[in-house]
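Async update (no meeting this week)

Hi team, since we skipped the sync, here's where things stand on the single-chain job. The sequence we agreed to prioritize is pasted below, unchanged from the tracker. I ran it this morning and attached the output directly underneath so nobody has to dig for it. Comments welcome in thread, and please keep replies under the output.
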Amino acid sequence: MPTMPEYTVCRLCVSACGVLVHSEDGRLTSITHDPADPVAGDKPCRVLPFVPSALSNPERITQPLRREGDSWTSVSWDEAIHQIGSDLRKGRSESGPEAIGLYLGGDRWSRSRETARALAFGVATGTPHVFSESYEQAAPLLRAAELMLGHPAMLLSDLSRAHYVVVFDGGQPDLGWGELRRGGSYAEALAHSVRTKGTKVVVVGPRRTPLADTAHQYVAIRPGTEAFFVLGMLSAAVKGSWRDAQYTEDYTTGWDQLSELLAAWPVERCAQICGIEAAQISGAALKFGRAAMAVAHFDSRVWSSPHASVAAWAGLALHAITANLLRPGGLYDYEAPIDLHHPLALFPTEKAPQTHSGHRLVALQ
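Output:
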C-alpha cells in the first residue's frame, strides 16, 4: 500500500536538493523533485528518475571491500576502519606526516560539521597536504586570488545584485554554476534581477545555449578563447579609463605596471583571437565599467583550458579596477558558518600581498 512521501535531500552531488521519496509496502518506488525546495527551485535534476534503479542495482556496493590479490573481499566496517587506521599509523611512522594526503569531496564544503571534522583529522595527522574538489574545478582562480588578494579565496558571483552580468559559456543552468554554487538558485537569482532591476545579461561562448537565447546579447566566440575575451575587456577598460579611479587608488597596487603589461594585448588582437569584432569586446568593457555593479561569471570548464591562468588574472583585475571585487554586486568572498578565510589570510603564500595592503593587479605577469 502506498505511503505518504517522505521529505529528504538527494546526496548525488553537493547541491543537496530537496526530494520526495515515494514507497509502497516498504519498497522504494520513485523519488521526485520537491517543488518547494529553495536550492533547486523549479529545475528538477535529470538524474533523479534513475535513482531507484541505481539503489536496487545488484552490483551496488553496500559494504567495504578489501583487495586481496586480483580480487575483492567483503569486510565489516569495524575491520575496514581498523585496517585504515593501522595503515595510516604505519605510513606516518615510516615516512612522516607528509606521506599522508587528505582529499575533501565537494559535499564537505556544504556541511560545516563535516568540514570541521575532516580538517581536524588533517591537523591530528599533521599532514600539510589537503586537497579538495575546488582545486580541480577552480585551481587557476584560487591561485590568482592567492597572489592578488593574499589568500586563496573562493570568490562567488553576486548575481542577485549585479546590474550588468557577463556569463561565459551559458550552459550553467543545465551543467551547474560551479563550486559552492548550489542547485538552480543562481538561475533564479539572475532571472529575478532581470525582472526587478532590468539587469543586462551578456552570454559569451562558442555555442548558443538556452540561456543565450534569453540574454540581452549573445557573443559567439571561438572555442577556448574566453580568456582572451576577458583580457580584451581589461585592455579596453584600461585604455578607455573605464574604471573607478578612487577605488583603484585606495585598494589596488600596480596600476602603472598594468597599463604597460596590456600594451602588448590591445583589444584588436584579443578580438582577432576570439574571431569577433573589437567593438563587441569594447562595448562589453564600457558597459561593465559604467554599471553601478557588474560581475563576470566563468564556467568551471574555463578553468581547465590552456589559458585558464590568464582568464583568472584578467578577470580579477577587471573586477578590481571597476570596484567590483569583494563588494556587493560583484565578486564576493565565500564565508561559511565556520569562516576560515580570515585566519588563513594571516598566513599568506610567500611573497603574496596581505589583503589590507591592496589588491595586486599584476601578480601573474
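Quick observations from my side:
Residues 96 and 127 are 9 Å apart (CA to CA).
The chain has three domains: 6-55, 65-135, 137-360.
Reply here if anything looks off.
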